[in-house]
Amino acid sequence: MDSSGAANPSDRELAGIRLFDEMLGYVYSAALRAAAIAGVADHLVDGPKTPAELAADTGTKEDHLFRVLRLLAMRGVFREDDHGRFELTPEAHLLRTDAEGSLRAAVVTFTDKAFWASHGELVESLRSGNPSFDHVFGTSFFEYFRDVASPEVFYSGMQAKSDSENPSIMRNYRFPPGATVVDVGGGYGGLLLDVLRQDPSLRGILLDLGEHVVSDHRLGELGDDSRWELVAGDFFEECPPADVYLLKHIIHDWNDEQCVQILRNCRKAMSPGGRVLVLDAVIPPKNAPHTGKLYDIVVMSLLPGRERTEEEFRALLAKADLEVTRVIDTGFVASIVEAVAR
Side by side, which strands form the sheet with 334-341? Predict the structure, then answer.
């Protein structure tokens, strides 16, 4: 018993409590999505507000909004002060639309019904070995965002997530001076933009299949249009000649056979002494905690790919006549797997 005289729960009961918390984890995601879409964080820039004030600002119901914010505050997203007002925390700041490094778009994308419904039917992936997304929506993930949903919803969220990772990559890798760098499937070009800013001697090529993506690229922010070019192309068909190939969150989308095709196209076009950089999670063994194990289930439900261990990366790259030279832990989810021609 504790000092109040209450009997302590057994180990089995404590395990049950933890399991209930795990099974309701999706409720936190739902609350986070609701707060992001309602724009709560944007209305707290000037300081704490009461639920009544926030409800008036966001067009929501005071009691319902309070209950959502109370839950999020339990996880450190928003904070309730001694006067019953809510304020921003570092996590809540990232929900602001105009914040540097805002993740609001990523929250809205990753809690979209395309993700939500697919994870709810994850057992279909276990039974069939195929993405549960295909079972739920009757089409593939990329076809859905090309033909059914707005591509902007997908790409804006991916860009926000990607931009949050780029500083850790830049801190941990120096590109060879004078190199031409291809961002393979690079979307709006946020990573390539940061690479070109690192060294004025570098040149860049943004390769992506979606012409609408390439046309909305960010490379103009560099202020020197002579240092980059755009290529609307399919990395399954060919890659442009270059010294360095960036594959950020590309390889984890595809099965081994498809990955080898992409990597062989890079290897075929690569300059002598060139290199391929795979930027993905590298899964540690056994019970070691790593966010990449969470992302692996996201990939499982949506796509034919997977997150991989270092050994799996080495074997995969070897099939494309590439040899891993080093694996760099960036301190973020994505590591840098560097490979050269064998």
Answer: 228-232, 203-208, 180-184, 242-248, 270-281, 334-341, 322-328
